[in-house]
Specification:
Elements (H helix, E strand, L loop, with lengths): L2 E7 L3 E3 L3 E2 L5 E6 L5 E9 L4 E11 L9 E6 L4 E10 L16 E10 L5 E10 L5 E10 L1
Parallel strand pairs: 5-11
Antiparallel strand pairs: 1-2, 1-6, 2-3, 4-5, 6-9, 7-10, 8-9, 10-11
Keywords: Plasmid
C-alpha cells in the first residue's frame, strides 16, 4: 500500500518531495546520516499569543488516513511552553496522485507555542516526528517573539 506523509510546518505545507513556502516563513532541510530528515523553520509570533508551529499527518493513496504521527519534544523552549495535540489537517497538493485528497480533513498531530508573558526575543523548539510508515523527521523551529 502506498502512503504519503504530509508535513505542515509553521503555516506551510511540505510534502515528501515538494515544499510550499508562504510569505515570512523560512525553511531548510536535509537528511542526516542516520536517515532521519532534518528540517529547520523560522516562525514569528507576538508575546501572549499561541502560535501553531508544526502539523503532520499520513494518508493512503485512496485518501484514507494512517495513524496520526507521534510528536516528541526533544528540546523544550527556554522562554515559553510547547504543547502537542491531535488536529485535523486539510492537505492542498498542487499536482500528483494525492491531489484527489485535497479538501478532506485528515486526522493529524500539531504542536503549539506560547511565549512566557513579557518575553521578547528568540526561542527554539525541537521536535521528533514518527510516522506510521516508519519514517522519522526532526524539526527545529526558531521562534521570533515580538
Amino acid at each position: 500500500m502506498f502512503a504519503q506523509n504530509i508535513y505542515c510546518g509553521v503555516m506551510n505545507l511540505q510534502y515528501k518531495t515538494v515544499a510550499c513556502l508562504l510569505a515570512g516563513i523560512a525553511l531548510s532541510g536535509c537528511v542526516s546520516t542516520n536517515g532521519v530528515e532534518q528540517e529547520t523553520y523560522t516562525a514569528n509570533t507576538v508575546a501572549g499569543k499561541t502560535k501553531r508551529l508544526y502539523r503532520a499527518t499520513s494518508v493512503n493513496l485512496d485518501c484514507t488516513p494512517l495513524e496520526a504521527p507521534t510528536f516528541t519534544v526533544i528540546q523544550h523552549p527556554l522562554n515559553g511552553k510547547v504543547f502537542i495535540r491531535k488536529d485535523g489537517i486539510v492537505p492542498s497538493y498542487y499536482t500528483g496522485k494525492y491531489r484527489k485528497c485535497n479538501g478532506r480533513r485528515i486526522p493529524g498531530t500539531a504542536s503549539f507555542y506560547t511565549a512566557t508573558p513579557g518575553f521578547v526575543g528568540s526561542d527554539t523548539v525541537k521536535l521528533r516526528i514518527a510516522f506510521d510508515t516508519g519514517e522519522m523527521s526532526e524539526v527545529s523551529i526558531r521562534i521570533n517573539v515580538k
